[in-house]
Amino acid sequence: MKAFRYMIVANLKMSYRNRTALFWNLAFPLIFIVLFQFLFSGDDLSIDVGIVGEDTSPVSQEVVSEMRGAEGFNISTGSEESELDALDDGDRSVVVVFSPGTEGSELNARLYWDETDPQLGQVALGAVSQFLTEVNVGMMSGVPVIAIEEEAVESSGIEYMDYLIPGILAMSIMNTGMIGLASAFVTYRERGILRRVRATPFPLSSFIMARILSQLVVAVAQAVVLITAGVLIANLAINGNLLYVLVMVTLGSLAFLSLGFVVAAFARNQETADSLANAFTFPMLFLGGVFFPVDSAPDWLQPIMRLIPLRYLADGLRNLMIHDATLLDEWSNVLVMISTAIVGFGLALRFFRWESSNT
Amino acid sequence: MNLIASALDRHGPDGPGSGDPIIRIRGLVKRYEAFTAVDNVDLSVRRNEIFGILGPNGAGKTTTLEMVEGLRTPDAGEIQVAGIDVIRDPVAVKRVIGVQLQTTALFDHLSAHELIELFSALSGGDTSAAWVDRLIGLVQLEEKATAKVNQLSGGQKQRLSIALALVNDPTVLFLDEPTTGLDPQARRNLWDLVRQLRDSGKTVVLTTHYMEEAEYLCDRVAVMDHGRIIACDTPLALVQSLGESATIRARVESDLDRSVLASLPGVNGASVVDGQLEIHTDDVPATLMALLQLAERLGIRLDNLSSSSATLEDVFLSYTGRSLRE
Description:
The complex is a heterodimer.
Chain A (H helix, E strand, L loop, with lengths): L1 H16 L1 H22 L6 E6 L5 H12 L3 E5 L2 H9 L5 E7 L6 E8 L3 H22 L6 E8 L6 H31 L2 H6 L5 H31 L7 H25 L3 H18 L14 H4 L3 H13 L9 H21 L8
Parallel strand pairs in A: 1-2, 1-3, 4-5
Antiparallel strand pairs in A: 3-4
Helix pairs in contact in A: 1-8, 2-6, 2-8, 6-8, 6-9, 6-10, 6-12, 8-9, 9-12, 9-13, 12-13
Chain B lengths: L20 E12 L2 E12 L3 E5 L6 H8 L7 E6 L2 E2 L4 H7 E4 L11 H11 L6 H10 L15 H12 L6 E5 L7 H16 L3 E6 L2 H7 L2 E6 L2 E6 L1 H6 L5 E7 L5 H5 L4 E7 L2 E6 L2 H15 L3 E8 L2 H9 L6
Parallel strand pairs in B: 3-8, 3-9, 6-7, 7-8
Antiparallel strand pairs in B: 1-2, 1-4, 4-5, 9-10, 11-13, 11-14, 12-13
């Protein structure tokens, strides 16, 4: 147990001091987040407001024309159905539906806002209702002209960064697990470090377990850093349970570590290991739905994309983070991670070699 | 943990290298497909001696050592180390031995101090700072204790790997070609360290293809070639087994007839290649006298005339018909 503890501490020290690995594990995904944030967020900070029933009364017409004149509102009008669809797709922050007033007020205004985008949704709701209240006060002292109701709507259309960041996290877990582990173990074997460890009474199975546990610690650290950076830099919306996210991170990490062991089993030297791991991970990046939703890919690609484990990790993380999904909701993605790990470790057990040559 | 024990109890009651063998090898065989790397090797290593396995590259030295260390499984034979059956219990033997492998590969990004601490933990040894510092002092790496492995010179790496072999205060220490690639100064330092370890009560088994190393450092030497032990004794006894043999060398300008040289008194072999004269003799004074007279009679100059007594190189040559360096 003492030996195991020392091995884990040594592994973590090595991970931390290996600047190249640290760059690929942490800096590289962070650069992605910053870069995409820069590319996809203009300085357009106006609030998209959808108006339904502009012509309900002179008051509504007056209000809308004043909103058009005010800065910071981006007004579009349409039918209730089309505007609520737009809200649902995330294209509106607030939808105002005017209807003829009842019970004394001249006009009813029902405000729908996007709950999944708490920051912008709240701001938009606040701005719009404040505007309407001002109109109320300005138009007639005492009796409110407009009766305001609010209704929260959960949109299915999520911001691109909310889509991207769970994908980036999945990508980092894959890279650390597969490339990092394969490269390290092939180097250990090639340079005789595995043999040196074998010359001690410390069992190799414990050596591997220590390595896996250390890698899981690294994966969780990656998740914490990337999610924190996502919230701070890109306003990442976390609606799910972070504990579930960590469970998914762990399972995904195990799955890709097992694939790393498979690569290490078949690669003879570090160069082969690196190119083999890259040959697997690079296409996965684009076919695994990290940067764009897999649904938008052409039909002929779909069956191939269904075979890519990264997709299930990215999907699972996304649903757990952005939507309020539970692990049970994500059972299929969880199952893919577990079965990948089982198949991977099975193959690795069968084909892994401790010695680089047959001498 | 009595690593640098008082020199008083080093030799035991019967002097160095006596008593029951601490390592016993019988009929050891290792084959790789059609190739027999180790061919029916018998060896006994005595307690508290420096035992050398001398042979050219590919002789089977490393393979033999790794089987004794429990790293490879032999195809046939028995190995006992400190009373442990290595083949039946390779883990138990790892607790009482220390191993330095031929390639000094270590984890990057860890300091010498951290590596010793880690391997001490892995070997079930003492991880206290006092013990680690003591090992660092023993291999004279005090100034490099916090340096990473890639900042160490070849000799320093070699000494670090010896420190790693000592973490569990082993009874038997195995060093696989410990001085290969070292400069002469670093090599001499390492020899001192190995002697010091022997003097502190350890048994040291090392492989080498340097005959000087076997000759000056080892208490006993096994000469190995093509997977077999061809001779095993103290370096002195091995050399003496060749008789009072010596070699006379000189440079000559003109050709000398080999048969004339061979007929000189005491000579049992002679050659002249590219003006380099080499005569093997059992009687240096008689041969030398006759050679000088011959040269004067024929009017031939002998430059760089020298005579040297036999070495392990000659032992190897006489057993295998080949030079160790080939």
